[in-house]
Structure formats: structure tokens, C-alpha cells
Amino acid sequence: MKYVFVNDDFFEENKAFIRTSDLALQRGYGVFDFFKTRNNKPLFLEDYLDRFFNSANEMFITIPISRAQLKENIFKLIEKNNIPESGIRITATGGYSPDGYSPVQGNIIIQQQLLVQPSQEKFDAGLRIATHEYMRDLPSVKSINYIMGVWLQKQLREKQLDDVLYFKNNIITEFPRSNVFMVTGGTKLLTPGKNVLAGVTRKKIFAFAPGLLPTSIADISLNELKSADEVFMTSTTRRILPVVEIDGVKIGNGKPGKITGELYRIFVEAEEKEMRMY
Amino acid sequence: MKYVFVNDDFFEENKAFIRTSDLALQRGYGVFDFFKTRNNKPLFLEDYLDRFFNSANEMFITIPISRAQLKENIFKLIEKNNIPESGIRITATGGYSPDGYSPVQGNIIIQQQLLVQPSQEKFDAGLRIATHEYMRDLPSVKSINYIMGVWLQKQLREKQLDDVLYFKNNIITEFPRSNVFMVTGGTKLLTPGKNVLAGVTRKKIFAFAPGLLPTSIADISLNELKSADEVFMTSTTRRILPVVEIDGVKIGNGKPGKITGELYRIFVEAEEKEMRMY
């Protein structure tokens, strides 16, 4: 039986509840974050906690426990559940709001699930994606609102596509759950900086990539993206995955790019190093 | 003790729960509707149920009970709670999704709360509002996502304003929880038709107003709105309330308009008539 932490205690998964008056259920109001464990070790935990507390702060949600207490309960959950390769989600809801519209003290949920990382076959095949004009409500915040991302799934399935990239006024931003990068001119790595979530994997790429090629933030149009040498997405769940087709247009030669592969190798090494730090 | 209906039974309010794996908590994914009772009679119920089932359908949420069963449980809740003047909220969440991202069979919640309609003083004072560029994710759907509306509350409180009107590319759309109308040229009633929720009170105005003055749907710019003779909002909770100031600009003479008052009187009469139909 898997456990879920809610506010101040651990509950069996099917007995982990939130009351129906919570602002997350009433108004979709809440924030979360998601990190992974390998061999029961949470990777880059401090980066994710930074973002989680920042999201809550930007959305005026009070987190009723300290960062130290949150960490303590994350490690307790890891021990209790023993799912060595996992994803852990921490959520702060808008709380039990008396007027059903104003955020109050949040309810805290920590959930864990088995996480299978994409296979080498998945990497080699690359992703075929669509684009869609949309911007998340407060792009710098990791809110729980994924209405558009979830809603678009049906269309993607019907077209047998892997994901959808958002853009706004012709400038690309992010995937519903991932960031985007492009390699251009054979030697430059670019990623959007406006209206995007500051992904932790994205941040790591920014730390490692300059050793390999010049890396910068830029406004990238849909057309510029489609004529890139290489395009890839970064996310906690999927690490780095090449994008080989956008709106039916092949990227480069339609195969995963060399720099994408190199960055993937460097990123996996960084994960291994992080694991050894415990 | 107040009761809440969840899926197939009635629970005391503080024992009405949803499991933490629900897609509403995970991804803010759910739909709802909200109607009121007067003297324990639900007003314009069929209109609200039409919209509720339509919202669920548009968001691929399966409602596990029939319309007849839903109505039966609404009437049971009204009887059990006995809150004659109330608001009733029906919610269909995205459900307990195995992958945490795909909508499945929804969880159904029916909640009731005391509802105090705005006083005559509130009507006479009118509303002072701001404007904000934003569009809800799927505007024709009454989803649970109110992140922007809730988030803007703090700014409104600081500026001592009553509400915020959304616009998109300079064309006005709706309030977070209400529709907007304007009277122009002394004799024409206009309301936006694009990117708005089809409000039930708005629908009633469309039924009654043509007896009073020509009524139509139109694209209305921010400037046109600010130079209107009268502006008012319509909603289930607030019925009809005059807007007397927008972004610091006085509307008309800064007092509730004559046509607004007349429509209010006609609408309250329609509610009384609806009550007598039971």
C-alpha cells in the first residue's frame, strides 16, 4: 500500500482526502511541484523547493509548514513507500476558503508514483508535435491549471502526435509540461525566456551547455523554430527528448540531432553525480 | 449541520471528501454550475443543467448519473438542508485519473450555501471596476479555473474596486463571474458575444429587454464601453448591478442608469413568476 502525506500525517492512498470546500476543487486554485527520485534519492530537490515556495508566494497561498518540515516529510514518504525510481508531487491548494474565492492557509499534499523514464527507443524516434496559441495564466508560477494541456490531448491522440508547443503572438513559449530549446546555425543554443516556467532541467542545461556551445535566451518565432537544426524539450519526467517534426515540418534531417544527444549524455551524468552526493 | 452530496450519498459538510488523486486537484480540471433557490425553489434550473452537461461534454468529462438523478439529488439536498435563500453549486471533476492527466468518469459534488442578494444600497452605489487583458481557457465552458479572477482580488482590494472586466485585443468580454451589458445612444442595449460564458441571467435579459429597447450582440471596444450611457453586470448571485466607474472613468452621470433599473425590476418579476411555477 502506497502512502500520501496530507497536512500533518500519512494516509493510505485511498484514504487520502481533501474536503470538497477546498479552493483547488472550487476554483482550480493551487500550486505544485514535481521532482524525481533515483535509487530513493530526490534529485535537485532544493531547486524544486525554491520554485514551489515561490509559486505559493506569487499566488498568495500560505504554506502551513516550514521548508525543513516539508523536506522531513518528503524523506519520510520516500522511506515509507520505497519506490526507488519515482516522481514526487508536492501540492499546496488554496485551502478551505470561507468565501470560496479567497486563498487562505493551503492544504499540503505529498504524493509519490512510480516513474519510468523514456527509453532509448523513444529518444531515437524523437517527438512529432503540433503548436497551439495559448499562454498559461501566470506563466512564472507552477499552478495546477492544465485545462488546455489536458483538453488538447484528445486532438493529439487523434493525430497521433506526441505533444503540443504553445506560442503567443507568433513567439514560442513552452510545452504544457516541458521547456523547449533549439540549435541554430550549427553552433547556437536558444530557448525562450518570456511567458515560460523556469524549468529545473532547463536551468541545468543552462549550466552545462555553455561548455559545448554558446547558449542564450531569445524570442523565437514559429518559423525560426521550424527551420532550426535541432529542437528538443526538457522536463523532469522526460529529461531531454528530440523533436523531429513540428506541424508536419521535419526538423533538420528528421532525426535526433548530435548536440541534443550530447546534452542528454551530459545531463544524465549530472544526475548520477547528484545521486552520489547523498 | 449542512449536507453535501458526493457521487451517490449525502455527507455532513466536514466529512465530504474527494481523494487527492482527483484531476481537479492534480490539474485544475473540472466543470461546475451555480444556481440559486428562493423559498427553497431552484430558479431557472433547466437552463443551468443544460449548461452544466454542455460544459462537461466539451471538456470530455463523463457524468456518472443521469440528468433525472442529478435533479432528484438536488431536490433531496434542498429538503435536507432547508436553506430557503441559497446558492447551489454542482461540480463534475475530471475524476480519479490513473495517469493523472486524462479525464475519466467525473466525481459529482452538490453543495449548498446561504446566499444574500445585493442590497438596494449596493445597487444604488453602483460598482467601480478595473479592466484586465485576459481570456478564460475555454470561454464557452464553465470550468473551475478562476486562477486569474482569484489572483486579481488582492489588487482590487488595494484599489478599493468592486470587480474587474476582462478584455482581449481591446474588445471587452466578461467579468470573472458575470456578464456585461451597455446602453448606448440612449436606446440600444449591447453585450459581447465572443469569448464569453453564456450566462443564464444574460439569457433572461435577452428574453425581456427587447420589449424595452433594441438588444443585440456586438464587439465592444474598451473606449466604446467607457463612453456608454449605462453599463451593468448580470450574474446569478448579483442579478443586475450598475457599473458607475471603469478604470477611473465615470459612466454616464456616475449614477445607476434608468434602463438598468427598469431591467432589474423586470428581472426580479421574472424570478417571482418562476417561483410561482412550482
Oligomer: homodimer
Main interface by residue count: A-B, 46 and 46 residues
Structural class category of chain A: alpha+beta
Question: Which H/E pattern describes the elements of chain A?
Answer: EEEHEEHHEEHEHEEEEHEHEEEH
The total count of strands of chain A amounts to: 16
* Through-space gap between termini of chain A: 27 Å
Shape of chain A: globular
Largest sheet of chain A: 9 strands, mixed
Q: Which short descriptors sum up this protein?
A:
8 helices; D-amino Acid Aminotransferase, Chain A, domain 1; six-stranded antiparallel β-sheet; nine-stranded mixed β-sheet; 278 residues; D-amino Acid Aminotransferase, Chain A, domain 2
